[in-house]
Amino acid sequence: MKKKLTLSLDESVIEEAKKFARRRHKSLSRMVESYLRQVAHGNPPDEDITPLVAELSGVLSPPSAEQGRQEYRDYLREKYR
Questions:
Q1: Does the pTM of the predicted model rise above 0.90?
Q2: Confidence (pLDDT) at 44
Q3: What per-residue confidence (pLDDT) applies to 6?
Q4: How many helices (H) and strands (E) does the chain have?
Q5: How far is CA 70 from CA 28, 37, 40, 78, in A?
Q6: What is the pLDDT of residue 47?
Q7: CB contact set of 46 (below 8 Å; sequence gap of 6+)
Q8: For the chain, what is the domain count?
Q9: Among residues 2, 12, 23, 54, which is most buried (max CB within 10 A)?
């Protein structure tokens, strides 16, 4: 069930938050709800990171830059054979 909540914030904070929300194609209400949900559950408020994503973070180590370049070279060799 949705309920209305009234907040009093500095006008400049509201305007910047609206711009931020627009850039992410989200409503300000949705962003505030997501933040409050994370805070209430004791999770750090990382931008829309779900508990599953947070749990999986760090499980895989990223490939080295050289490994990535070598994989790309191999891909191109196969593609243009």
A1: no
A2: 61
A3: 93
A4: 4, 0
A5: 44, 43, 45, 12
A6: 59
A7: 38, 54
A8: 1
A9: 54
**10-residue mean pLDDT series, the chain (81 residues):** 90 89 89 83 65 70 78 91 86
Question: Does residue 1 belong to any structural domain of this protein?
Answer: no
Predicted confidence at residue 20, as pLDDT, reads 87
Instruction: In whole angstroms, give the CA distance from residue 35 to residue 30.
Output: 9
| Domain region containing 45 | 11-79
With respect to residue 2, please indicate whether it lies within any of the assigned structural domains. no
Structure tokens at 42: 């004791």
Residue indicated by tokens 């305007």: 15
Instruction: Calculate the alpha carbon distances from 21 to 17, 56, 61 in Å.
Output: 6, 26, 31
**What amino acid is encoded at 4 in this protein?**
K
CB neighbour burial string for 35-73, b if at least 16 within 10 angstroms, e if fewer: eeebeeeeeeeeeeeeeeeeeeeeeeeeeeeeeeeeeee
